[in-house]
Queue: 2 jobs
Job 1
Amino acid sequence: MRISYNWLKDFLPKLTLSPKETAELLTMHSFETVVTGELVVPPDITVVKIVNIKPHPNADRLHLVTVTDGQREITVVCGATNIAVGQTVPYSPPGTTLQDENNDNFTVKETTIRGQTSPGMINSLRELGLHPKEHGGIWILPTSLPLGTKLADHVPPDTILDADVTPNRAPDCLSHRGVARELAALLALAIKEPKLPALPPPGSAVNEFTVTVEDAAKTPRYLGAVLTGVSVDPSPLWLQARLLAAGSKPLGNLVDITNYVMFELGNPTHAFDMAKLPGRAFGIRQAKTGEKIILIDTTEQKLTERDLVITCHDMPIAIAGVMGGQDSGVSEKTKDIFLEVASFNAFSVQETARRLALTTEASTRFSKKLDTNLVTDAARRAVDLLQELTGATLVGILDSHPKPRSPHPVKFRPSQVSRVAGSDIFTAEQSRQALRNLRFTVDDTKEPWSVTVPTDRLDIAGEHDLVEEVIRVTGLENIASAPPPPGTEPQPLPHRIYWCEVVRETLVELGLTETLNYSFEPQQYAAIASLNNTDHLCLVNPVAPDMKNLRVSLLPGLLKNLATNRATFHRQVGRKESSLFEIGHVYKPGAGDKIPGVDENLHLAAAVVGNLPRLEDIAQTLARALHLDSLNLPNIITDDMVQKLKYRLPVFGFEVNLDELLFRIEQAVPPARSFADIKAAAFKSTPYVPLPKYPPSYRDLSILIDPVITIEQVQEAIERVGGQLVADVDLFDEYEPPDSAQKSLAFHITYQSSGGTLTDTEIAQIHNKIVAALKRELGAHLRG
Amino acid sequence: MTEPLGARLDTLKTESVTALKQVKEAAQLEQWRITYLGRGGAIPRLLRAIKDLSLTEKRLIGRKGNELRQKLEILYERKKQAFGPVSFSAKPASFTPAQPLVGHLHPLTLAIRRVQQIFSAMGFLIVEGPEIEEARYNFDQLNIPFEHPARAETDTFYLEDHGDAQALVLRTHTSPVQLRTVLENNLTPPFKILSPGRVFRAERTDATHETTFYQFEGLVVEDGASVSDFKRTIETFYEAFFGKRVSARLRPSYFPFVEPGFEVDLSCVFCRQAGCHVCKNTGWIEVMGAGLVHPNVLKNMNIDPRAHQGFAFGQSIDRIVMLNHGIDDIRLFWSGDIRFLKQFS
């Protein structure tokens, strides 16, 4: 939620923290808050009045607009359609820095547009950097602003904070007053509440209006205020500045006041135009399937019986808590209004907003539970502002609030704070102070205390919640780490985990590399593995249609990996790192041991490219590592699959139920390792090298060399001379004839550049340089 | 280079043989192998340095170096056999490829293994559970009511053919494993359990979001399980994990299954709080969510919240692996691309 620092200062005149300090304080005690930007009117912008508008002689869509600053008249070219003679607007002379449609800065120059000189421009909110998304026309200012004055003098610079209010604090903190109250509690400051004059007692019918609530569980409170004689004008600048800081576009005083009250107090409100209503009988009910409504954003929405709607004469005129209807919406001509201030069932609004993908400031707030008493404050504030700023008259109030809420007491033992914190830094006095600062009433005459919770703290249910309040207000960061315990008995790893590690270790020693695949079965590869007709467990809401089935086998995933690595594997001489294995869960419909209808098992599967290691070797080695007498791993990758994967190399593979296999192992307890021992074995943090964008090339190098020269020496020389162009050096042959003075070494070199695909000439150049260096440094000769 | 190569070779010989004698178990042996015989180990490094010597010296030191390497390799194999059942497998006699084939473990496996080792050494029982979970264990029993936004299909994968009453989901966290462990084994305090595993979120993938990731969650219910005790526990873990001194910073946050709940920041291990791109110059990295177990959740585990308290914590393993290796795209873990997988061991 966007927060205006100036607005907070209105509530907290004694706030001395800077915006950044304020954000840090909230982050450490309440919820994560950061400073995100500033709201500053550029210094050169002048207040002017439009005195004349003429069509541009050479362009249909442009106008020549003459403005006055009270001293002189200036004529500028303008393309906006929302302007009229008599309006007060901002003017930027040449030299002013403004923002373009990409929110990049540009400097205004005196230009000639289609033959007409334009010394400066009149501006939109976006150009002034006040509302990044706003592109619809010139910013219309209140006519009360003195002409020729600097606009910046009327709009003090503001700093914008972004508070990530946690869901539990939504009822009391999704507003400027809420955040200000939070700061008041943290800093023990007094808060200056806005003017909230009491409303007259509600009637049962006002000006023939009635309200019928179908289900009070869905609409715990519905307050309607009938006001007449509204005059729609631009809002005063202070109010516009607040809305801009909150991220909302000013649209005229009537709509602005409804938004202002929401940002100030947290309860959304909505105004219906009385003249456009089909009657006077309001209702709140579930929609009927098939009912439709066109919303203020001009979209037509089909409703279901899970949606809650506001009706007038049984016709839907708004989706409760989400958005109002277009037909009953207010405009600049509106005179009389029905103002709605309500509380709706949070889950109902949440579901509807999600189904219709309509996230609005209102639906965001209503989607969390709100305090029905907040309606009173919001209605008082809105009515007062409407009377003051639009000249409206209040006719009367309707209020459906069958179950008013009152503050509830919670038992609290101050000693519990230290017990939870594990630290005795929290005194009873601190608890008392923290709770009182948070607007709780504390009766500490006897233990346990009785703490009365204000109704907007819907998150406080029991003592544990009060303990958290005391700890976070007083300072979570003040709790020091406990001293280490006298000694901890290490636990052995569980049987299954231990032996899985042995399996992994064994397979890695055999040259297999571990891969991990999704639990969703890739359908294309399931088909290759002939698994597409098997019974699968399916997802209701897969992220992609071919990820709907949960895997019954690890094979499709491995086949997919083979396809991914086909090019790499085919190029590799010696088949280094060309075999893959995976250990993971597979899921089948079944009797269900733990979960009804689901058989979930741990499987092991591998795919070996090339002839080594043979499956018999793997089986034998695994059997030995697991202390099994024998293990049979029949090949499951058929020639047909290999062909479909377009492999020219032999591929073998196996899959076993690892749960069953590990069950056969003796149930001896694996050894436990001490903490000191574990800690000593450092964990590697080798930086990952991003995968190359350009393809590699390969060259072989066979040399004859003095046997005393080590392989490492040769590799070092190749890597050093080749520099960054040598991606890999592999020895693939070593031969030392008994009667020879020289040994023969053969290397496979991978050349690759991060800057582009290497040409044959470039590779030849570097390859020859390496050959020359090996000869010069190590006396190596190319083999014939 | 101060010490002559010949002398260094002799030092290395004594040092490596002595070190091998002190090796007591398989993991230490592997560490020993990496230190002396691994590609970046002491012996290969020395053999590479031979290039700077005169030809006569090259012959002498080269031969001696190669002999030492062969000797150490034999000693290593013997030691390895000696570990017997506790040791990881010895190389098969029937199978001798031209050069040792050594594959790679997935980076997530390497991290999970490390996490499991550290926590079991700290006295935690490592527990596993099903990836397909009942909604009541994944949500209701953890104080996440039906109305909670996390339960929407936009966040959670649901399985077909199950009514709301017995809805099945792909678990969104490993907390239900802890609940199951406590209930199925009638665990009573004190206990410390840790559940690592694969979890799922129904969301579109991009460089920082995945449908599938790994996490570990811990639960401690014992005397003195407090905020202060949690802080010590988690600092101990991270110090062992990163091999560096760290401190934790707690900030208030909200998770339905804990109260109080907090966000845990770790002092940046990459710049020692001097400011770097990983911590965005703040000196702190956000690592995990945690809190004191909510009384309702304790009740659901048949534990009396008036008599006992506990703490719980949860951390994405993918995130710490990405931080640790500078991996910039979470989807690489699921790419199956050998060029990625072979970078880790």
Job 2
Amino acid sequence: MITEKRSSGFSILRLVTDQTRGITVPIGAVAWDSSRQWYQIRTLAPTERVEGVTRQRRAFVHVTKRQLERWAEQGHVPYAEQPAPPWTDEFWLNAGAILTTAVRLDPPKPMEPLDENGDELELLFDALVQPQRRRREQRQRIDGAVRRALGDELAKRTRTQASVRAYHQAMEQVLRAARGPGGLVVIEAVNLAARDARKEADALASKLMRIGAQNDQLKAIVGYLASPGGLNGEGHMRDWIAERATPAIFDLNAERDAFRRAAQDMLLSIGEQRQLDLPPDER
Amino acid sequence: MRELYARRANSDRPLSTRWQPIDIYCAPEIDSAEGEILLRCKLVRSRESAAVCLSEAVSIHVLEAVGLMTADAYCVLLSSPFAEALDHRYEFDPAVRPGRHWGTRLLQENALEVEFTAAEVDLLSAPRDIFMLYLADVVLGHPDRCTYGNVLLVAEESGRRHYLLPIDQSDCFGGNARMADTDSLLGCKERSLARPLEGLDRVVLEGGQPLVDECLRVVGAAKDEIMRAVDVPPDEWYQGSGLHPDTLAEFLEYRLDHLEELSRADHWRGLASATEGGRIL
């Protein structure tokens, strides 16, 4: 009996920015998995920017996404010899063959299957496209991931955007914090799949070191978002934070349970109070 | 038609569409790269593909005559050695004929091939072009406009919107199969044949009867220019396809003289008068 081989993969959507020199910029990612009959497309959101993508060209991205979704629903790409469902390499090969103008689709590449919940596709998108986002949006995204990893109960026990004392009495803002009789817990996070990953990792390590210099009883835990398969080569950044700032560093998706347990243990160890009582000089 | 010499191919493989176009760099002089531009070319390899080139050349003249934007079009001169090299590389069967072929300037970074839907109407700076294109397709007997890639959205240079650019008119005059036979071609002249793009209803509703009447008037006024379209293609394509300019002229004249009924003008006027123009709330 012949069994169909499982196909899970991804492709990159690109926008042509210089036809003469053949220059394109990535503006989207597609991923699929035949065993779960799943596919998803992620393209630039209105608040995300990529150099070379003007407003007019952004419209091309949206139109192309709509077209791909229509063909996916029909299970057939125009001019393809055979129909193929959108969770197969064949579908995306066929689509790539007829996208020959402003928007292109790279040939499919195999990949470890992604979770269907969309988080890993977001990370893949970040790693491939590296869009510029407003700082506030970046923080909201990462805090959302931390909140999901902590769970509602633990999340309620920490204060967001807390200010804490750091080296030479400077104030630093952290993602989440909790204080108790036994010390201070700081929960931070970094997106190692994003375009500024290296800069952010360095800044985070430095910040935690400076907070530690002012707080003997600091317990720091860091969660990170990693591109699927480590496409962004982020291992060294994670190791640097572990070596210099805190050994408690966890992948928010792959090590979610470990992150949550470690955070819980830390909060218990400081005898954390429900409200974050900061000394008067830290209010 | 302007002529350019084919100098070097740029495609890894022919497109998977019916006529297998390839992209070729072409220049005004055979022995110089100066002024080289990249064209998407449909190559004459058979009687049918010669008819394709005819269809394209006549059509683009008609589209321009009614004021629509079109791609820059050229006659591409291909030498025997280059034709052989193309056959060898791309395994064309039947083989490419040396001589004249059809080419249009390739638009990539500022243009997108689309399967046009109503959602794209809002991107256009001139939605009326959808109705004008429909009338042009009726004149040309073009049944294939709704197929993916037969219109482009092109970003305006100075504006924020886009214009509609019809591309790929290889199947006019009722389609390539009918072009193979004069009787069959003329036998379909009384059929409407053209299919409007999605979104045309909305454009007519918003434009009202003035839009319908104005577009019909424009086409009517362009009759003489439209009829000159049959003189545009080189004799080589007429000979290669077995068609005669008079056949195409007879077809076009009939279509122009019966445009009201072939385009179902009364239907569009009726639709337009449903709101007497303006938006539906």
